[in-house]
Every structure is written in structure tokens, then in C-alpha cells.
Amino acid sequence: MSAARPVTWRGWLLTETPSSRRQAAWGRRYRMWLAFSSNPVAMLGLVLTVLLFLCAAAAPLLATHDPAAQDLANRLAKPTAAHWFGTDELGRDVYSRVMYGSRVTLGMVLAVVLTAGPVGLAIGCMAGYFGGWADRVLMRVTDIFLAFPRLILALAFVAAIRPGITSTVAAIALTAWPPIARLARAETLTIRNTDYIAAMRLTGAGPFRIILRHVAPLCLDSLIVRVTLDMSAIILTAAALGFLGMGVQPPSPEWGAMVATARRFILEQWWVPTIPGLAIFVAALAFNLLGDGVRDVLDPKQR
Amino acid sequence: MLVEIDNLSIAFPTPTGLSHAVRGVSLRIGAQKLGIVGESGSGKSLTARSLLRLLPESAKLTADRLTFDGIDILRANERTMRDIRGKRAGLILQDPKYALNPVMTAGDQIAEAWRAHKKGSRREAMQKAVDLLDQVRIRDPARVARAYPHELSGGMGQRVMIAMMLAPDPEMLIADEPTSALDATVQADILRLIEDLVSRRGMALVLISHDLPLVSHFCDDVVVMYAGRIVERLRAADLSRAEHPYTRGLLNCLPALSRPQPSLPVMVRDPAWLA
Amino acid sequence: MSRSGWVRSLGATSSSVLVTLFGLILITFLIGRVMPIDPVIAIVGDHAPPDVIERVRVELALDRPLPVQFWIYVRNLLHGDLGRSVMTSNTVLADIGHFFPATMELATVAILGATLVGVPLGVLAAVRQGHRIDHIVRVVCLTGQSVPIFLLGLLALLVFYATLGWAPGTGRQDVIYQGDVAPMTGLLTVDALIAGNWDALWDALAHLVLPASVLAYFSMAYITRMTRSFMLEALHGEYIITARAKGLSPLRVIWRHAFGNIAVRLVTVLALTYAGLLEGAVVTETIFSWPGLGQYLTVSLLNADMNAVLGATLIIGMTYLALNLGADLLYRLLDPRAQ
Amino acid sequence: MIDVENLSVRFRDIEAVKSVSFRVPHGGSLGIVGESGSGKSTILRALAGLNADWTGRMAVDGVPLVPRRDRAFFRRVQMVFQDPYGSLHPRQTVDQALSEPLAVHGIPDGEARVRRALDEVALPGTIRFRYPHQLSGGQRQRVAIARALMTEPEVLLLDEPTSALDVSVQAEILNLLADLQRRRDLTSIMVSHNLAVVAHLCPTIAVMQLGEIVEMLSTDDLRAGRTTHPHTTALRALSVELQES
User: Which chains touch B (3 or more CB pairs under 8 A)?
Assistant: First the structure.
């Protein structure tokens, strides 16, 4: 019985006696997926996130109109068969603009995460592992950035360069890395003093090898949770910047800016500002649900 | 009999079904000193804690009979249980570092235990707390009463814990590995203190430990548990005449100062022990 | 820790706060210098003659090297000089003194509401972990952390003001009460209370309800989540088993023992949340035309009034820092383990 | 093989180890006994290079030790920790844990060495690709011992290697250690709070109290009760009274 090779994929993945590194690694991933997929909150988040990315990828196919095409004769129309979500103050199709808007939002989120995430992780791990002066200097710098509320620093920063998609991304990234670095440092500090890291040092491995191969992968778990939850905060900050007129500029179909330009119609044509607002809500909720679910899977004691 | 247990089982739900931690344990405890011995995962702690119904929420508890002085613990409501907990049976946990509330002074924690079951003023309770600290042979009870747990050594913390559990004058004391977090010299002091207090007050003692020789030194009777079952019950004095191979194995595999051995006998676990 | 150790760690904290403060000032200064707007043109206008431009440039010390400019900036700051706002032509400090109380009033009411609802909700969710109430609280929180404040504000106005007519409209008070109450603290409710003007007090409170609720929702979600996770950790402590073994009532176990252990940490969270409300205030004030610091900041931004923007940013940063420091001190005072 | 002279270690305001001296001959084995806070583990960590804040003189095989050790040092000196649940990286399989020292030192033939190491500590090959949480406490400690032996060290430092284990598992691990010591001609230092455990493995015993070695004696003297320091006498009495009644 033990000698027979398990026939099914499931059996191969779930075996208690894997016979290769690859099998062990995939088995672990599969178990995590099983835990994840049995969590309805996480799955709802995942489905919403995937849908969001699909919208962004297939916006040209899904859109029914040109998002920039104006039709001044048909301004502020109610939702109809032709215009599913109605039209805005310039007669543009709101549905198509919302679809294209997902590209802007997700693009910004990814750009921020891909810059702030690795930077924060690297700084946090190094500060935590080396301690001493390196730690003091690096943490003082993050403290300075953390001393501003996020939106305020982003606003001041955008004001210094000029509003636009690049400056929005740069401003948010500038405010996004310090909390990540803080978290990575805190994790590193607890990991650093464990016996298994002591054992790694006793193999003669250098500090960079230990950080890269042993410390960083363990920080990654709580970091993934944090970054996923942070993505919703990034969406909200980007939208707030857009809403205040300091983010992505019209006519680009950024959701926050769409709400801002249509806000004066809230009492008469309430759907015009509400629909892009709901789009922001759904996108932020998707990442919050996903992050919450991932936390349950990766870090059960944090529930 | 103070405690009567028939066919007690405790199980926990896992993804692959129920996992039984205690299976079919039957036990009578009177006004005596009983030791429950077993290795980690043998179910000794769960068995004792079920008497106070202080199990994790997910635990599934079943028994044909589980009574404390005639009170049916399985069916008792929360109010009745609270009259047993503390008032009639105290519980001492392993490590005072974690078992004492870190933001309350030692005196407050003892006074609280007293006030929960006796009627009296705050001042009276505090006086009682200092008295109790004196009874557990703390040299400067008034000072220790004002101290926070992190300011106390392990041995002092455990004395505070004992004082707290003695406060409402219970009939029974359950000590769950009360000394395994302590140094050997302190360990002996604490165990002698417990033994002394229990004998003087005529209380029942349930001493849970992984250390068979230690338990038999302080108890009248010893129950040996393995994988959720009782494999043997015997008088502590008859330990050398233990019959079950598991009990014998536990005794033999210990290195001893008095006799040098080239190698230690290794326990060979017989699947039949599980039956 | 001994008394001298306590003093030493206090010294370390205050020196690190000073370094942070210095960094704060440096960042605002640098942002001001890389601005694409020429501050001279902003003051004298596009069509000023070259000699006037040159004179103002020298007056503002803009011809000097950057470190010297920074030194002048810091020196002015120490004298409470944040420059003059082009838009209002008042000093920025006077402007902030005028607008800040409105923001504080809004944020304080919001944090009170958020705490009173959020903390019990978080405790409840932790105690009933995995039960239906826990899931409901979770959904309420996740929604609160996902909804953009401006959407919530707009919808609140649409429903409670325009449709139901329950709430008064935007602003801090009705026109008829304006100037009724002599400003003492700048907090309208407190001023009305001091003056004994009940109608004005009622009016001020009515105007506060909607923006404060909108602002409070997001913070409440955060406070609830943090309370829940702290409580779960505390409830798994061994000392909870001890407390239950003593025969204490469940309420006493939960509030005296579990909550007692997280209370101090929660104060830190509340301080941070309060500071975070300053951020939410920027958007909320825009929606509700609330004449506070947030609105001052955004209007200055749109008018490229740089002194005002930097001044407001710096003041908010310093408030944030002060709250952090306060929370830290409170923690040292209240937690027996920290001493 | 190991020479320690006037070793002192400080943690901020506390002197954890106060001017301790001892030597262990080649192939010898020293036991250090003491209660918590006596400084016994601190000596091992300083010797292993995990704590650089020490003063005094230490040498291994005549080579003086400096605070920063080079890679060659770690080939010769290895350590086993107390808590088998904490000394294995939670995200690495047994295979990865055992291969890591080989990779660091560039030792070839990893596949065969890992298999031989598992064999040596009597672990079945089936556990090779398991994660630590899938192993029992005893199995974990065997993996930790195997890892320490991967670079074929001459010195093995043992920090309470059995105190987190059940007594029946303790016996197995003690037998394994005794066996390895004999077969590999290892020089070792073992730290424990349990007098009987140390006496079982080591012919010489140092008794520590409050950072100092208060007595150094042979195991035979200890067994026979020929102790001089009151602390040693007390520890011995407790061990005999509580454990062998």
C-alpha cells in the first residue's frame, strides 16, 4: 500500500510521505488552497478581484461605447438599454467609462504595490536583522513619513509636482512603503531571535543569505495580508485624490474624478456620481475581503 | 465519593472527523491525594479540567456519569458551575508567568477570588489576601500583595496562585503541572507547601504531572494515562510493583543518579495498549 | 524598570520625537522648494515689473543657497511665522487658528461616536467568535473600510437632507445664528454652551451629526477590528482560565480580566485613529462645506496658495506627532509592565 | 580541545557569566548543570559565536576565538537547541534543513549525504520531504541533531537537548547522543538543569550558580555523594529524593 504510487492528483498532492521537493512544495500549496477555498469570505474576495482584473483586461470588449465620445444632446440620461448606467454631464456612457476606469485604478494599485512592497520589505528586513545604527536611521526615516496622515502627504506631494497619474502613483507609493517596512521589521525582530535562525547562523551562512532565504520568506505571509488590505486603502486614497482634483485628471475615466465632476448632480441625477462611487466601493471591498480571507489562511492566530 | 466519573470521553473536531483525546475514562476521587500521570497528549489535563468544565469551546464532552459531590456537571448551568469553580474546587496552572493577570496586583487577584464567594468589604478582602500570602509562607506579604506578577519570581508567583485558589476554602485542589516551569529547588518547596496545606485543611488533591516518581512521592494513589485511557491505577507505595508495561517503561527509561547505565531501556509501544 | 531607567527612556523618546519633527519640517520645506509655482509671481502677480520681482525675491531670501533658506524657514517657524496666505491675505497661523477648531470639533465628536460603538462591538464579536454576530460585525467593518467617504457623504446628504429632511444641510450652522455666539474656544458647541444659547447649541449639534457620522464610520470599522483582534488574543490567555477557575461571572472575566489587559493598547489605537480622522476630515469637509482645516487645505491647493498648503500640512503632521507622543506617554503611565 | 579562561558575558546591567574557566579534552564531554538564570546556556552561545559581547579567552583546538567567526569555524563546531519546535525553520522540509549546511559550505554529493544522515539518526526516509509541523517532538530533535552533524563537526554543543521532550523520548535521544559521541569521537559540552541526564552522558560535571562555576567534579564523585559545595549537595539530594524514591 505504501509502495504503490498514488494515482490521483489529489492523492499525489496530499500524501503524508512526499518523495521529492517539488511534491512537498506543491502539496503545501494545495493544502493552503484547500483552506482558502473553504473560506467563503476569501472566495468572494477572490471572485470579485478576478472579475475586476477581467474588466480591466477586457475593457474594450465589454464597453458598449467609446468612453470619450460626447453626446451633448443626451446629457445626464437615466439608465436605459442603450446606456446601462445612463450618461454623464457631457453625454458620455457611464458604463463604458466605469469599465475603462478599472484599468486606471488597478494600474495605479499594481504600480504602487510593486514599488512600495519590495522597498518596504527590503528596508524592514535589513533594519530588523542588523539592528544598531542601520535600524535607528532607517526607522527614523519611516517615522518621519508616518508622521503625516497618508492623504495629506500625498496631497502636498502632488501639489509639489503636478497632478496626474504618475504623480498620484509616486505620492501614494511614497506613503505606502513605511508601514510595510515597519511590519517587516517587527516580524524580522521576532524571527531573528529564534533558534532556527541561530541554527542558520551556525551553518556559517552570511547575513544576506539568511535574510533572503530564511527571514524574508517568513515575513512574506503577514506582508501579503497587509499589502492586500492596503490595496483597498490605495484605491481609496487614489480616488480621494481624484475627487479632490489632485489625482488623475479628466477626461481620463478615473472613478474618483468622475464622482467629483458629477457631484453637483447628486440631488437630481443621483446615479451619475453614485455609480462610479460604487465601483470604488466594490473594488476596495474586493481587496478587503481577499485580504481578510488570506489572513485567516496564512495566520490563523490573527483571526 | 467527591467526584465520580464513568466512561468520560473528550473529542475535538478536525477536518477529517472527530479526534478523541480522552476515551472511556472512569475514576472515583475522594478526600485523598491522587496523582494523574502521563506524557504529553495523554489526556490527563483535559480529564481534570472537565471537572470544572473549563475545556476549549470546541471540545465535545460525553460521559455516562460526571458528578462533583452529586452535582451533574454535564447538565449543570453556568451559575451552578460557578459555585463549584473556585468555591469548592480550585485549579492551579503550570506557569504563573502566564496564569496570573499581568495588569492586576497579586493582592487584588487574591482578594477578587475571596470576594467572588464570600461576603465582605474590599478592605476585608485585602486583609484576607495578605493573610493568605502569609499562609503560603511569603516573607513580606504586604509588599507582595502590592506587586504585579512580572515583579515576582516563578516560585513566588506560584505561591500567589496557590493563595488565590485557597481563598474561598475549597474542598478540592486540582494542580495541573504546578511545578514544571520551576527550578528543582523551588519545585520541591512548592510541592511540600501544597502537600502541607492540603493535609492540614483536609482537602482532596489531584496532582497532574508527567513525572511519575515525583507524583508518587507526594500522592496516595497514582493513575497512569496513555493515549486518552487509564492504563493502570495503583497505590503510590506499590509503584515498584507496577504491572503495566507502559508504567514500567516510564520508570525504567529515566536516567538515575544512583545507578550508572551504559544505555537506557527504550520503551517499545505495543498497539494493544490502545485497545 | 527603575525610576532612572524610566527617565532615560523618556529622554530617548523625546529626542526621537525631535528628530522626527525636524524631518517633518525638512520635508515640507523641500516640497515648497520643488513647487512648479514661483512664489514671487504668486505674490506680486504676472505683470509686475522686473525690479519689483527682484526686490521680493531678495526679501524672501530666495536668492540665497538652499541651506540658508532652510535655516530662515526654521527660524521663522520658531517665531510662529508660517508666512502669509495669498488667498486670504492673513498670516497662515491666524488662518489655521480660525479653521482648526472646526476640524477638532468634528473629529472629536466622530472619535467619541466611533469609540462608543466600535469598542463594545469589537468585544462582542471576539466573545462570540465564529457565531452569527461575529460575521455581521465583520461585514459591517469590511464595508466601513471599503466605502469612499465622499460617496458616503453624498449619499447621506441625498437621503437625510434632500429626501427625508431629517438633517440640516451643509456648513457648521444656519445663517440666522451666525455671529450670535461670541467665539471663545472656536468650538461652536462649547461656545454656545458657555453663552447659554440653547438654540445655537442645538443648531450646531444638528449640523454636526451627519458629517461626524460619516467620518466616524470608517474609524469605527478600524476600532472594532482592532478591539476584536486584541480581545481574541487576550481571551486565549492562560489568566482567563485562572479567572474562570476562580468562579467569576462571565461579564467580570470579559471586562475586568480580558478587556483590562487590552485597555492600554486600545488607547494607543484610539490616539492613532483620532489622528487619522484629520485625513478623513479633508474629504468630509469638502462634501459638507465644513469650514475646517481640511477645506482650507484643499482650497489653498486649488489656488496654489503654497504657504497655506505647507502650513496646514505641517500643523497636521505636528498634531499627529503630538497624539502619538501622548499615546506613548499614556502607555508608560498606565501599563504596570511598561514601568 | 576546548579552552575557556575567565569568560564573562554581560547583558546590559547584568553580568550573566562571571569569569568562568574550564577545559574539555579531545573526545571528552563536559556537563554543565544549573538552575534557570545561572548562565549555563549563555556560555554555550558565546562559545558558538551567537553572542559577541564577551570578554576573556576561548580557544578551540588551540585556535583562539574572536567575536566574529569565519565559515571554517562553523564546520567544526555545531549546536543542538532545547526546543525542537523552535529550532527548525517552519517553512522548510527536512530535506531543505539538512541540505542547507552543505550548500553553504559547498560540500558535494548532497543527495547521498542527506540520506546517510537520516539513517544515522534512525529516521525513516519517508519523512525526508515533510515539514516540521508534520513531525513529532522526538523526530524533530533527531532532525536537528542530523543537521548539526552534516558538516562533520568535531565539537557538538548541546543546550538542554531533551528537556522539552517526554521521558520515553528523552531516553531515545540520550541513547542516540551517547552512540554518536562514541562513533564519531566528538568533543561535547552538554547543558541541562537535570543532574541525572547530565550524569548519564558526561564523565565530568560543572555546577553553576548565579553566573559562576561553584564546583567541578567527576560523575563518579557526584554519584557517590562526594560533593563539596552546598548547592551541588542540595541539587543532588533533590534529584535522589524526588526522582528515585
Answer: C, D
Domain borders along chain B are: 98-169
- Phi first, then psi, for residue B232 (nearest 5°) are -160, 145
Test the C interface: residue of B101, B110, B117, B152 with most C CBs within 10 Å: B101
Domains and CATH numbers, chain C: 3-78 (no CATH), 92-334 (1.10.3720.10)
Distances (CA, A) of B93 to B116, C29, D169: 19, 59, 24
pLDDT at A2: 45
ipTM reported for the complex, 2 dp? 0.88
Q: What is the pLDDT of residues A131-146, one digit of tens each?
A: 888 888 888 888 888 8
pLDDT in tens, D39-94: 999 999 999 999 888 999 999 999 999 988 888 999 999 999 998 888 999 889 99
B143-182 residues touching D, CB cutoff 8 A = 154
Cβ(A288)–Cβ(C146) below 8 Å: yes
Q: Which of D137, D170, D193 sits opposite B183 (nearest CB)?
A: D193
Residues of C in contact with B98 (CB under 8 A): 237-239
DSSP annotation of A234 reads: H
3-state secondary structure A237-261: HHHHHHHCCCCCCCCCCCHHHHHHH
Q: What is the pLDDT of residues D176-228, one digit of tens each?
A: 999 999 899 999 999 999 999 999 999 999 999 999 999 999 999 999 999 99
Question: Which of D171, D240, D241 shows the shortest C-beta gap to B264?
Answer: D171
Closest C-chain CA to B93: C242
Q: Does B100 touch chain C (CB under 8 A)?
A: yes
**CA B35 – CA B88 distance, rounded (Å):** 19
Per the CB < 8 Å rule, is B185 touching D245? no
At C310 the pLDDT is 86
Q: Rounded to a whole number, what is the distance in Å from the CA of A8 to chain C's nearest CA?
A: 34
Domain boundaries, chain D: 2-244
Mean pLDDT of C69-74: 88
Strand partners of residue D218: D204
Nearest chain A residue to C312 by CA distance is A152
The cell for B271 is 498497539
Contacts of A260 in chain C (CB under 8 A): 150
CATH number of D2-244: 3.40.50.300
Biggest CA–CA distance in chain B, Å, is: 63
Q: What CATH number has the domain spanning A47-64+81-288?
A: 1.10.3720.10
Alpha-carbon gap, residue C323 to A250, rounded angstroms: 37
Distance of CA D203 to the CA centre of its chain: 15
CB spacing of D87 vs A196 below 8 angstroms: yes
